[in-house]
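sorry for the late reply, my laptop died twice this morning and i had to redo everyting from scratch. anyway the thing you sent over, i finally got around to it. pasting the sequence first so we're on the same page, its 609 residues, then the predicted structure underneath. double check i copied it right bc i was rushing
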Amino acid sequence: MSDSISGDAASLNRAFSALEQADFNGVLQMALQAGDKGPDALSWKILKALALSLLKRPSEALPEYEALCAVQPQNAAHWSNLGNCLCELERETEALEPLQKALVLGATDPALHFGLARAYAVVGPLELARRHIGTAIERAPHDAEFHLFKLRVLQAMDLWTEAKACADYLQSIALDDGQRADFGYLLFRGQWYEQAIEQFAAGSTDPDLKQDCDIGLVMTYERTNRITLAKEIQGRLHEDAMQKNPKLLDNYFQMQAKMAMREKDFAGAKDYFECVLHKPHNDPSLKLGLEFEYAAVLDKCKQPDAVMQVMQKAHAQRRALVSKNHPALRDNTEAFAVLDQAMPTWNPACQGSDEHRDPVFVVGFPRSGTTLLEQLLDAHPDLISFDEQPFLQHIVRRLTANGSQVFDCIQNLTQTQWREQRSEYFREVALVTPDKKAQRAVDKNPLNMVRLPTLQNFFPQSKVILAIRHPCDVVLSCYMQHFRAPAFALTFETIESTAQMYDRVFSHWYQNVEQLKLPVLEWKYEDLVADTEGRARALFEFLELPWHEELLAFTERAKNKGAIKTPSYTQVVEQVNARSVGRWQAYEKYFTPEAMRCLEPWLERFGYL
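ok and here's the structure:
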């Protein structure tokens, strides 16, 4: 008997040693050979469960953990392992109870907090997910998996500054092939496209991971208008090779849908989106984005009633998601808060000169053609544009950091403070336009329309271009757009609420424009469509810049720029066309009397009646 006990102890020691050396298959074989009898049966069951988990076989590990919890219900580690196993099976809602039980029983290990973070990321609130992943990282600071999940949570919470810092850290550490693929998709979601390409291009020797990386490359190349490269890789991918991997197949269908849209094969794109959306999704934000894309496809297929059914469902999902993830959010964006405040008068302290040349501001209600206008401006050799940035809003935040009202701050501004704020603004501009100091900056951000009357004091030599498009087309486009800013989920929740905000924004603009001591050019999208050269010449005449014939090829130039981080990235690389003009007419019956009441003054003012 003693020899048998000694032999069992030696086998267990070998198994634990194999576990430490990551020989998980070896551990599993030894556990299977040992069976479930004898004094060490429990130890072998633990080893078997751990080996199955580490071999990424959670469905087989689950009954082992359930049996262990039944046998040793006071063992916190068993409950923690059970909860994490359920998370691996995407059953996070069920995972929360065993994970909480482990916490009550005294578990403090990082794996427990990782599991709790995963569960709360699905169940909510996200703030608890953030806290628990933070605790996991405190206790295991070098675990790349934890940092990847932290990035996922920060993105879901729209904490983009912290997310960027997390992404930068992940780029500095070693990742395995699977982690690189996951990181690539997170970078893609964050619109850090070149970094995403770097991760995907590393590939993998694992066939499934290699295909997943290739899918990521196709989607990133499509998003950055490198269609030739996207098609080349797409041609190497085949649906048959992915049938046994549901997640991979979903990614493949998403890729095919996006590429079909590029080819204007809208019926094909519709079929691919339906393949994805008819399956359950554990990532609600991803599913929401797909719903909006599906609606866009239905619009191209000229099915307006089907579009509105999808949009109504999608907006309900988005409100629920925002309410869960941002419970303190009001029915306003930070920028729109100024609409109810008075505009400060001109401060004489905001005078003088420095080495900076004031920018050209491109403003307008979202989806008014500002991106197309920006690409035309950027084609001029004397101008340089950059993706939409909140640099003006940063001025507001710096001024009000001590709790003061921005208007009081501007009224009491000293020339030293004026120079400091300008210097910081241009420092931020320089970060996104390296080696372009000789060119005048084009600051295109539609929301600056409500900020400029407040902040004109800082840029007395700037010029302003106000983009205008048919108000009904604008309202419909905003309603159908999946904006990243969570507050827009409330502002643009219905056609009526969008029309009301349109009315508020333009009322604010025209109430204050007479006090705006800056030259303003009103620029109609439809006029550019009807007479591209004529309106382009007028634009550069307003800016006192010479005309160049090559400016008319601005859409081709935009195609070669790569990433355009706005929703219209596919349209602005096409020749100027009238396809988007009058789009709202197919949805006219969905414009309520209240919506039209809000829009009619602007339809008349802008000449659309």
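The chain has a mean pLDDT of 88.
thats about all i looked at so far, will dig more tmrw
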